[in-house]
Amino acid sequence: MSVGLQRLREDRERIRQGASDKGEDPSVVDRALALDERVRTSRGESDRLKGERKGASRRIELAIRDGGDPRGPEVAEIRAASTEIGRRIDVLDGELAGMEAELEELLLRIPNPADPDVPVGGVEASAILRTWGDPAPRAAEGWQRRPHWEVADRLGLFDLAGGAKVAGSGFPVYRGAGAALQRALIDLFLDLHTREHAMVEIWPPAVVNEASARGTGQIPDKEDQMYAVGRDGLYLVPTAEVPVTNLHRDEIIEAARLPIRYVAYSPCFRREAGAAGARTRGILRVHQFDKVEMVCFERPADSGETLEWLTARAERCLQLLGLPYRVKLLATGDMGFVQAKTYDLEVWAPGVEDWLEVSSVSNFRDYQARRMDIRWRPEAGARAEHLHTLNGSGLALARTVAAILEVYQLEDGSLDVPEVLRPRLGARLTALTG
């Protein structure tokens, strides 16, 4: 379950307000608590009846031991009563199983309350915390920057029409130097996070089962955004967060192993239902993109500090690339269903004159850990408790590539290459700039 029942009973109003702050229906809290009361009442009645049935069995044993006729009226009457009790138990337990399943589903639909320092409101309430770099164009005054799709078309970096032909709109094909740029960025981010940030690299499956999708909160909240492999009951991964976080599902982790910090590359698949308009042109909003994801398992007391550390790791990627960016603290109505606190990193793209989100870094507190039953033991012999999970993009490639094309384009139509990528692209530098 996402929200512990005991916590729900004790902190009803805060959790209810948390749902409302996120724009979710707070009545789900009331329905869950009402059903919880019915479940507890039915469970108590079932236990009482089971005690009566046990007592009846004991009376039959005593009657027979004391010389009673096993087929006599006294024993027959007790047997009949026991049989009726058993029938009532079967009916009650069947109803109880249905109520418990319904309660579990209701609990999954209660969002994670935001941290107290998260601003309440919609997109307009989100706060810009800091900026890095100069978002002003690097070109000579009076030169109009081109959007990334025009730069890519001129240099032959990707083929949107070809992708639409083989898969459909929103599945770009990268070619030549464009494909090399993708690979160079993935290598850069993975090397940075493993060598400089001491994360353990994971190469996860590109599909997950329903339990994994439910564990991280994609189901039931984002089910419509996922690609389903219906015949096999699997889903294409929307982010490496899903398979990587589920690696420790149903585990108890000893304190000495924490923190656990992973980094993983994966292709990501999202239906992006309903997305349309100018902000979806080029590769700004696609159904398949590449992303390097950071995932952390932490002691509860350390997760707040780790959120800041994780955000700084994502910022390091943008600083190495020389891309101007800003860090935004998302308001309650602008953040996700399962997040307790989220920072977005937005890079400036001068060709489209917009800030593009390239990383979202979140602390989930114990919300995901409860869904997946991931616990830690503070010390030997101590009671296991749910730990905290965090994750963040480090980075998502599609919009990062778009920003590079728009920031590093030159007036003659060629493309300068970020210094940090030149050793990785090698001879392909000529193809990129030619």
Q: If strands are numbered along the chain, what order do they take across the biggest sheet?
A: 1-11-12-13-16-10-9-4
The H/E string reads HHHHEHEHEHEEHEEHEEEHEEEHEEEHHH
Provide the residue-averaged pLDDT. Answer: 88
Helix content: 40-55%
Strand content bin? 15-25%
C-alpha-based Rg, rounded: 28 Å
**What would you call the structural class?**
alpha+beta
Let me know the number of strands: 16
Number of continuous helical runs: 14
Notes on the protein architecture:
The protein is of the alpha+beta class. 42% of the residues lie in helices and 19% in strands. The protein contains 14 helices and 16 strands. The strands form four sheets. Strands 1-11-12-13-16-10-9-4 form an eight-stranded mixed sheet. It has a three-stranded antiparallel sheet with strand order 5-7-6. It has a three-stranded mixed sheet with strand order 8-14-15, with no helix packed on it. Helix 3 runs antiparallel to helix 4 (73-108) and helix 5 crosses helix 12 (397-407). The longest helix is centred in the first third of the chain and has 39 residues, at 27-65. The protein is elongated. 39% of the residues are buried.
Write the layout of secondary structure elements.
Layout: H1 5-10, H2 12-21, H3 27-65, H4 73-108, E1 127-132, H5 148-155, E2 158-159, H6 160-166, E3 173-174, H7 177-196, E4 200-202, E5 207-209, H8 210-216, E6 228-229, E7 234-236, H9 241-245, E8 252-254, E9 260-269, E10 288-298, H10 303-321, E11 325-329, E12 341-349, E13 354-363, H11 367-372, E14 375-377, E15 385-386, E16 388-396, H12 397-407, H13 422-425, H14 428-433
Parallel strand pairs: 4-9, 8-14
Antiparallel strand pairs: 1-11, 2-3, 5-7, 6-7, 9-10, 10-16, 11-12, 12-13, 13-16, 14-15
